[in-house]
Prior knowledge:
Blueprint: H1 35-39, E1 43-45, E2 48-50, E3 65-69, E4 78-81, E5 86-91, E6 95-100, E7 102-103, H2 105-109, E8 112-121, H3 129-134, H4 136-139, E9 157-163, E10 166-173, E11 190-191, H5 194-203, E12 209-212, E13 222-223
Parallel strand pairs: 4-12, 10-11
Antiparallel strand pairs: 1-2, 3-6, 3-13, 4-5, 5-6, 7-11, 8-9, 8-12, 9-10
Amino acid sequence: MPQPAAFQAYPAAPEFQPQVQTVQPQPEVQAPVSEYEAIYGEVRDGGNVIPALDVSKIAKRNLRRQVDYVTDHPVGTIIVDPHARYLYLVQPGGKAMRYAVGVGRAGLVFSGEAKVAYKAQWPRWTPTANMIKRNPDHYARYAKGLEGGIRNPLGARALYLYRDGKDTLYRIHGTNEPWSVGKASSSGCIRLFNQDILDLYKHAPSGVRVVVLNKAQSGKGESS
Length: 224
């Protein structure tokens, strides 16, 4: 009678030990702040807070930049091209700093040369009689003037232009309506983003020469 095979014991399979890995939290990656986000960021000035601008919603042509510019006017001259809706600050080496501007009706009336007689920080504003007549519901409340501040339509700074010692009524100023920069508007002169008028103000001393181009001269200085 055959004998049963001897029982052979095999070692038990090793018990599965799960491998636990400790995952270290990664620091949050911040998107780099672009140059323009810094230029058009929030500014605290004179007790006022100028809001940051969303540069993704601003046309590239309206962002401040240095350009090639051919002109016989000396360095430091401000050249306003209201028809192209740009303002140029002449720099050395055939360059200029270009700022986008919004242009009101008054900004198209004057052309030629003038000087910045004086400058103002957070200027006071009073609507003209024509503005009050045209839109009394909006402007009549400010007939006695509006103190400087973030609600003031002249914005953070203003340059007042005179010719032959007389006020031209032509102003280069900031705005509390940044969406109007680069466009035509019904009132006002030449308006810049508040961040841009702050920059221009620093580089434009009182007495600086200003040249306002007419339609025939428009667009002839800047080279691509």
